[in-house]
Amino acid sequence: MEAVATETKNFFILYKPKDIVSGDFYYAQAHKPKGAKNEIFYICTADCTGHGVPGALMSMVGISRLNESIIEKNLIHPNEILDNVRSGIISSLNPEGSEEESKDGMDCVLCAYDFENNILEFASANNPLWLVRDGAVIEYKADKMPVGKYGDELKPFTLQKIELKKGDIVYTFTDGFADQFGGPKGKKFKYKQLEDFLLKNSNLPMETQKQKLDVIFEEWRGNLEQVDDVCIIGVKI
Question: What is each CA distance from 159 to 20, 66, 155, 184, in whole angstroms?
Fold first, then answer.
């Protein structure tokens, strides 16, 4: 049990659905692909179209397609996995003979951690990844497209790679926190304020960071309605 307790200090998941069920979801899967030397730990931070029941149904499709891609098809790299998930989502929502085309899907960051070699591979759809290193935030831009139907031409997702260092913290998130209205003027929290908050508190234990994020979100929201699902994941190396 001691090993488990130690490991839990190296990450946090802040998950705050707007309703009882959510269009945001997080996915974690440890898997050793066939032919690979090391186990890969996959973490996906995802925001599906809608919230409540419609969003939750999309989440189920997304999780099912992630399992299929990683476990059944044995795909390794996050960009290939997202390409396959996108194909699966499109086929699920647009069966043969359907008259209306559905463009539902999800925005997400899919990370693949090789902790043995301190390597992170990831692919991102519309949402960026932030790396806190040596007192600064490094932003890795996302592909400006969802995991779903868009336009006429589907471009492949981009594979990005980071050589991690001890003390690095990787943050992935959906847009619900930054888009929350509140504060003294009833305005959005915004990404810059979230970035500054994470950087300022990045030296604190991960569980403490989660608690402070929850507190600042509720203080900012005040008496206003929560506008969207919220999910933020932090992983410390």
Answer: 34, 16, 13, 41
